[in-house]
Each structure stands twice: as C-alpha cells, then as structure tokens.
Write a structure and sequence with these properties.
The structure is a single chain. It contains nine helices and two strands, in the order E-E-H-H-H-H-H-H-H-H-H. By secondary structure, the chain is mainly α. It has one domain: Four Helix Bundle (Hemerythrin (Met), subunit A), CATH 1.20.120. The protein has a two-stranded antiparallel ribbon. Helix 1 packs parallel to helix 5 and helix 6 packs parallel to helix 8. It starts with a strand and ends in a 5-residue tail after the last helix.
Length: 210
C-alpha cells in the first residue's frame, strides 16, 4: 500500500527504502526507550506485576511496526536491521531480569539465551564474510512473540496469590511452544544463510546474483 505525503504526493515503498525517519522506526525506538522504565519498575519500585505488564506490552507490540511498515509502504533497510536488534535487546533483557528475580527457572533462560547467541554469532559471521542480509522468518517472529508473552507471565505468577497460578500455567505452555519455535527457526536459517553467503560472493565478483 502506498504512503501519502500531506501535499498529496504518492510515496511508494521504494521511496522509503533508504530512510530511517519513518513511523514504524519511531515505534521501534519508543519500544527501546521504554526498556529502562521496565527496569525501574522491576528493580527500583519492586512492582513485578506492573513491570510484567509493560514488558508484555513491549513484546506484544512487536508486530505493530512491521505491519505499519508494510501497510504504509514505509519498509526501509534501516528498519529491517533496527527492528531485529531491538527485539534481541528486549528478549535478552527479559530473560536476564525475570530469571534474576527468581520468577523463571535458570535452565529455561539458558535455553532461550543460547538460541539468541547462536543466531547473533551467525549473523555477525555472515556479515563479516560479505553475505547478503537475511530477512526475518515468520516462525522466528512467532517464537519471539511467544517467549515475550511467557516471560511477563512468569512475572505475573511470581507471588502467593491464587490468581497467579493461572499465569504460571500459561507461562509454561506458551514459553515451551516459543522455545521450540525459536530453535526451529534457528535451524531454518541454515538454508537462507547459505544462499545469502553465495549471493554475497557473486556480488563481490560482479557475477549474476540469483
């Protein structure tokens, strides 16, 4: 879908490709800037439910920037890099902090972080080898979304109240699904990573890129 300026000029998706100043990127930036607020609520105010609600909101709105970028025709190269980076920061922050306060088990956190480390290292290695950028897979976004629901729910469940038991069950069910999906996504990147590497080599040599 095309975006439109106030003057009535039609702006196609390609017009925004090299721009970082888009509404979706602004939303991503706001999500990043709210992470310190989450840390303040959890560690300074000791409001685990409030912190969990904010963390859940930041995770649940992950799809908003991507949807807006596509619907408004504001898909940018900067956004394709910036959004996954913010996602990684948010996931790592959630895992470490929720586990630190004792709301989530250490083995679950290790399994989550191990996947993030594997993917991040692979991305850095591919970039250093000149590989083309790989688009984020839907299954990977689904896994991240599920995990970003599970960790706030672990915070909701962190207490003696009866109603909190429901969130513990939800956290485990959704969390395990998200963990499985995220590791499947990591494996699914192997094929695209190989193609991206080969295309990067062809591009450097001036040959045809498939």
């Amino acid at each position: 879908m095309d975006g439109r300026l106030n003057s009535g000029e039609v702006v196609t998706e390609g017009s925004w490709r090299d721009s970082a100043f888009t509404l979706p990127n602004l939303i991503t930036l706001v999500r990043l800037l709210l992470i310190p607020v989450y840390l303040w609520l959890l560690f300074d105010q000791h409001r685990s439910v409030g912190a969990g609600f904010l963390l859940g909101t930041l995770g649940a709105t992950d799809w908003v920037d991507g949807q807006l970028a596509r619907r408004m025709g504001q898909v940018s190269e900067f956004g394709k890099i910036f959004d996954p980076i913010v996602d990684r920061i948010l996931v790592v922050t959630a895992v470490i902090t929720v586990t630190w306060v004792g709301a989530a088990p250490i083995w679950f956190a290790v399994a989550t972080l191990a996947r993030e480390v594997v993917v991040s290292v692979a991305v850095l290695v591919l970039a250093s080898l000149g590989a083309k950028r790989i688009d984020v897979l839907f299954i990977g976004k689904a896994g991240t979304f599920a995990l970003m629901c599970a960790y706030p729910w672990f915070l909701f469940a962190y207490g003696p109240a009866t109603w909190q038991r429901l969130f513990m069950v939800l956290a485990w069910v959704v969390g395990l699904i998200g963990l499985v999906l995220s590791w499947i996504a990591a494996y699914s990147y192997i094929g695209p990573a190989r193609v991206a590497y080969l295309n990067g080599r062809k591009g450097r040599r001036g040959g045809p890129v498939a």
